[in-house]
Amino acid sequence: MRRASLAQAPSRRTHPAVDLSLAELPLRLPPLFAEACGYKGTARFVALCWIPELRELWLSDDGKARVGHADPFLILCDHAATGDALEEYRRLATGQGLRPWLLVDRNRRTLSMGNPGAVWNVTESQFDGEQRERQCGGNVRQRPELVRAVRAWLDWMGKRRGRT
Questions:
Q1: Which of 83, 104, 106, 107 could form a disulfide linkage to 46, CB 3.0–4.6 angstroms apart?
Q2: Which conformational region is residue 34 in: left (phi greater than 0), alpha (psi within -120 to 50 degrees), or beta?
Q3: What is the DSSP letter of 164?
Q4: Span 127-141, pLDDT tens digits
Q5: Integer Rg of the chain from CA
Q6: In sequence order, what E strands does the chain have?
């Protein structure tokens, strides 16, 4: 069986609840990636936006953005197993114009890229009008373990695919 290259173009395959203007990136997220970035909720979809000039990662599951933890995201961007898939996102995030957002599907462990409106439509609609209080920050003692787990999983995937 032939494996798809990580350098291939983003896929337009999406979950039915996902706006069609979102492009799924050719990578698999490590388990608990959103939690490692500081997410404490239970929603399926979590929006992420990297603000490079501030070195901040913003996240949301309900249309209200909060600052998360950037380290796991930067590890994902720089790792040999996943960095190529995020190259276009990083280029667009540092350029002029509309900054794209990423959408984490926690069930499928996928990452999609799209314009802010498309990403936020998914996150705002997932609760069917139910307001939920979200906290971003997570257990401070658990966060280093999650960051190590993200790095270890990426190293393992890189070795499986011959990208170390």
A1: 104
A2: alpha
A3: -
A4: 765 555 444 444 445
A5: 15
A6: 23-24, 45-51, 56-60, 66-67, 101-105, 110-114
Q: Which two tokens stand for residue 155?
A: 């190293």
CB 22 within 8 A of CB 116: no
Strand partners, 11: 24
Residue 92 lies in a domain: yes
User: Do residues 19 and 121 make contact, with C-beta atoms less than 8 angstroms apart?
Assistant: yes
- 164 residues of the chain, pLDDT tens digit each: 333 333 333 444 444 444 458 999 999 999 999 999 999 999 999 999 999 999 999 999 987 889 999 999 999 999 999 999 999 999 998 888 889 999 999 999 999 999 998 998 899 888 765 555 444 444 445 667 777 777 777 787 777 767 65
- Cα–Cα distance for residue pair 39/26, rounded to 1 Å: 23
48: which 2 tokens?
């992420």
Q: Domain of 37?
A: 23-128+137-160
Contacts of 131 (CB under 8 A, 6+ apart): 62
Q: How many domains does the chain have?
A: 1
User: In this structure, is residue 48 part of a structural domain?
Assistant: yes
Tokens of 141: 């003692």
Paired with 132 in beta bridges are none
